Amino acid sequence: MANFTINITVPTGYVSLQAYSEMTKIPIGTCRAMVRDGRIIIREKKNANDRVEVNLVAMLKDAIANS
């Protein structure tokens, strides 16, 4: 098998759940369900009212590990 390199640029470490929904074209309701069941990795919230932020770096690492 030939060696190859894949370069992936993550624009930022975290994005709002709404931005993630728009980036991936996954409906926001589905994204919320995916957060609840653990398929979307989020930053730990300090307060219940904090905005949900998707951890793009952790999501990329998970995708690589499970590919």
Count of strand segments = 2
Low-confidence segments, ≥5 residues, pLDDT <50?
none
The outline comes out as elongated
What is the succession of H and E elements?
EHHEH
Q: Quote the beta fraction.
A: 5-15%
The first-to-last residue Cα distance is 17 Å
| Total separate domains | 1
The structure class reads mainly alpha
The strand order across the widest sheet is 1-2
> From the alpha-carbon coordinates, what is the Rg to the nearest angstrom?
14 Å
Helix content: 40-55%
Instruction: Please report the number of helical segments.
Output: 3
Mean pLDDT: 94
> Biggest sheet: strands, sense, closure?
2 strands, antiparallel
Itemize the secondary structure elements and their pairings.
Elements: E1 14-16, H1 17-24, H2 28-36, E2 53-55, H3 56-65
Antiparallel strand pairs: 1-2
Description of the molecule:
By secondary structure, the chain is mainly α. It has one domain. The chain is built from 3 helices and 2 strands. It has helices at 17-24, 28-36, 56-65, and strands at 14-16, 53-55. It has a two-stranded antiparallel sheet. The longest helix is centred in the last third of the chain and has 10 residues, at 56-65. It is elongated, with a radius of gyration of 14 Å. The two termini are 17 Å apart. 7% of the residues are buried.
